[in-house]
Amino acid sequence: xxxxxxxxxxxxxxxxxxxxxxxxxxxxxxxxxxxxxxxxxxxxxxxxxxxxxxxxxxxxxxxxxxxxxxxxxxxxxxxxxxxxxxxxxxxxxxxxxxxxxxxxxxxxxxxxxxxxxxxxxxxxxxxxxxxxxxxxxxxxxxxxxxxxxxxxxxxxxxxxxxxxxxxxxxxxxxxxxxxxxxxxxxxxxxxxxxxxxxxxxxxxxxxxxxxxxxxxxxxxxxxxxxxxxxxxxxxxxxxxxxxxxxxx
Length: 248
Known about the structure:
- It is built from eight helices and 15 strands.
- With 248 residues, the chain is of the alpha/beta class.
- β14, α7 (211-214) and β15 form a beta-alpha-beta unit.
- The chain is globular and about 50 Å long.
């Protein structure tokens, strides 16, 4: 099945046509800047631009969204405008674009793709997938089953919301060296390790391609593995989520 997957991020909104059998994006990605303010109106306009680019009018789309979405309703908004809270995001986008829309948390989407198509050892049963970007996202899997809408980017580390301490945006803003940032990130993983004792951490997001730069400074008892699909995972996972919903 070919489905348009869209990944809404804090700085960019990306989309591509995905072959869900192969777990691959089969087109060049289309990327637009995340608008500011990132309101329902402005983000949906950007999504419409991606839909028009791929001439995907009135066809189903999967969308990874940077918020907890329960029962279709946006429950929090750390990296998008607060006016999204309480909005039925799938219905809003569908009513505007005329495309049946299936919404999943953006980190959950990326995790879904990595679990299905990433190079993850079969013996690993409990996996914490962490995305590192403008914010920090998390997806928890137990025997490949997703526990949706975890928000582990907001646990407290050193008296601070983790996302405001160890995101890639913070690394860039504070001009942290890889050693400085890696040691901070290690503290974060140590805290998650103590709380969940996963079999492994999988690190995704664009920064995962720089894993070799900071991995020497991460000290954990369980393996830390860079994601295979990197920043394509969100688009692929959103399409996989839509496919699953369409088959129900």
